[in-house]
Amino acid sequence: MPLMTRPETSSPATTVIFAVLCLIMIGLMPFTPARAQGNLGIAAVVNDEVISVLDLQARMAMIMESASMDDTPENRDRIAQPVLRGLIDEKLKLQETRRLGIQVTQADIENALQIIAGKNKMSVPQLSDHLASIGVPLSALASRLESELAWDYYIGRHVAKRLQIGEEEVKDEIERIRSQAGRPEYLISEIFVPMDAGGEQGDAGQMAQSLLLQLKNGAPFSALAENFSQAPSAAVGGDMGWLRPDTLDPTLRDVIGKLNPGEVSIPVRALGGYYLLYLREVRTNPGLQTEETMVKLSQYHAAAPAGADNEALNALGARMIEETRGMRTCSQLETHGQKAGTNLSGPLGVMKLSALPESMRGIIAGLAPGQPSRPVQTGNGLAVLMVCEKTGDQGGGQAAKDAIRTKLLQQRLEVAAERKLRDLRHEAFLDIRL
Questions:
Q1: pTM for this entry
Q2: What is the arithmetic mean of pLDDT over 312-338?
Q3: 122-125: which pairs have CB atoms within 8 A and are 24 or more residues apart?
Q4: What is the C-alpha to C-alpha distance for residues 239 and 232, in angstroms, rounded to an integer?
Q5: Residue 37 has pLDDT above 50, yes or no
Q6: Contact 225, 214 (CB under 8 A)
Q7: Which of 139, 225, 249, 394 is the most buried if burial means most Cβ atoms within 10 Å?
Q8: Which of these CATH numbers, 1.10.4030.10, 1.20.810.10, 3.40.50.740, 1.10.760.10, describes 3-161+428-432?
Q9: Alpha-carbon distance 55 to 46, whole Å?
Q10: Where in the chain is the domain with CATH 1.10.4030.10?
Q11: Tens of pLDDT along 307-319?
């Protein structure tokens, strides 16, 4: 039977760490004194690098605060296995990106730390003190940022350029959308707890039940998804977007069909693990509309240093991504641009999507209102764009095709990134000491 929850409520005490972890996709073994050899012991060896018990303890402390979990021995035992798995994945990502020559500079990390602190109305020293109060050194957060920034660079540079979406794929998707017009669609978030290879089904089921209990106690669904889900959607709080029933596994489709908006399912066994499904909204699929698309735009612009090379532009782009992550309105974007003192930041007005340059049209078409774009290069710097309002659709015209192509590319990128991470896990030498 479904469970009614308060999925997005959180107490002020969790705000700082939750905002920190929103930047990151966290992943996943228990720490108990009987099995660990003190705080300086080794939790795992990944190829030729060590994850210490101290690293594991620090990550568990961050996760428990972000997910409103009591810091008890029982909760530590429940979450330590998935937390360690996540630290292993993090180490594998960083090893691979370094092998490929992708480097995140100290300036990149310091900029990200300043942004996180600023969003929480703190200085970096104050943020460091807050983390220290729960037993987490600032270096634990810095390490996390380095891994995820490097992985983002890898996906953008080495994966995206190899993927192409053909015209036939776009046409097929347009036909699928048209065929679903007037049928129900679900806005769903998910938490996926996989069964480990060779592991016991009960381990994953018990973890899913534990997460369900946290939801009953008021933990935000998005925080639990970011910290514990092993689906690609974990990076965005488990948000799967609007889905047609025919795109879901039959078992999951049956469960969703019995939920009301605002309800979370009990753990569902399917597809290699357990799912918790949160049905946020239900609507009738509008299909492809035929009127001209009009967009109201705003931008945050940052000038590049004179003579900036690709490395400098990448650093500037990384800073802007962190600055705008979490923004959901044009007023937030505009206010930030004003505070930054950039003259080209602000409203751009209302215009036809079809009238924009092709390169910009493809970016704008794939954005939902209130979603910041990735930095776009301009003549003298970079700009983050945001759609304030969008009306109409070109019904299979170029803008609609661009939006569909962007969506299909993003889906393929997620699959390719997860496949690469699975390969890294399979090829790695792992020695788990706990």
A1: 0.62
A2: 90
A3: 122/16
A4: 10
A5: no
A6: no
A7: 225
A8: 1.10.4030.10
A9: 13
A10: 3-161+428-432
A11: 788 888 888 999 9
